[in-house]
Amino acid sequence: MFVEPSPNTNKSSDKKGQIEVICGSMFSGKTEELIRRLNRARIARLKVEIFKPSIDKRYHEHDVVSHNENSIRSTPVQFAGDILLLAGDCDVVGIDEAQFFDLDLINVVQKLANQGKRVILAGLDMDFEGKPFEPMPQLMAMAEYVTKVHAICMKCGSLAAFSLRLSSSMDKVVLGEKEAYEARCRKCFLEDKK
Ligand SMILES: Nc1ncnc2c1ncn2[C@@H]1O[C@H](COP(=O)(O)OP(=O)(O)O)[C@@H](O)[C@H]1O
Ligand SMILES: Cc1cn([C@H]2C[C@H](O)[C@@H](COP(=O)(O)O)O2)c(=O)[nH]c1=O
Ligand SMILES: [Zn+2]
């Protein structure tokens, strides 16, 4: 079970790095949970740096924004390696939409945690076909803590772990919101998957 570390163990000078992954379907509350953990680290006066992939500009150029419009300032970056260069001497690194980064994110996150930083990532664990969305599986394997959150199935009201794409596109990356995707439980996902 994930237990939030006492903030005073997160100072990078104490060298207690760790990796936390928040995963689940679309609308499951990944970004809300990421913002909550990062805000609490800031309240503890830790130095926090937040990154998102620059392709994801759905809501805002710079902010990480949840579906219910919570937001926190972030730095958009193109490559995972940019995070290593920009994290500097911070204590806590937050990364949203981790599924959109290249596989180099795996090494980057490991290096940051080995430097003593607390690294918190949020991302989709499965794509629109219900297949693992790399590099999330590798990050989940390396993490000290994995939190899987669930949305509500838009067809039957059960807990939802799948993201149903409403269009017929088979491209892996199709940015979108409620007009393009619906959270579904396994049964309702399989019934309507293209
Ligand atoms: N099907 C749904 N299930 C649960 N929450 C939903 C759903 N559709 C919209 N929401 C809203 O989305 C919010 C979660 O948004 P967010 O943290 O951005 O999710 P994620 O990052 O996992 O896509 C919820 O608090 C709720 O207001
Ligand atoms: C399932 C799936 C989703 N996407 C896109 C759609 C959204 O822009 C993001 C996920 O955002 P959220 O914060 O988790 O709601 O990813 C995609 O490109 N490919 C997919 O298979
Ligand atoms: Zn359902």
UniProtKB/TrEMBL annotation:
Return the EC number: 2.7.1.21
Q: Where in the cell is it found?
A: Cytoplasm
Q: What is its main location?
A: cytoplasm
The record's Gene Ontology biological-process terms are: DNA biosynthetic process; thymidine metabolic process
Task: Fetch the SUPFAM superfamilies from UniProt.
Answer: Glucocorticoid receptor-like (DNA-binding domain), P-loop containing nucleoside triphosphate hydrolases
Chain positions recorded as ATP binding sites? 24-31, 96-99
PROSITE patterns on file: TK_CELLULAR_TYPE (PS00603)
Extent of the signal sequence:
none
Q: Which residues form the active site?
A: 97 (proton acceptor)
Q: What is this protein called?
A: Thymidine kinase
Organism of origin is Algoriphagus boseongensis
Gene this protein is translated from = tdk
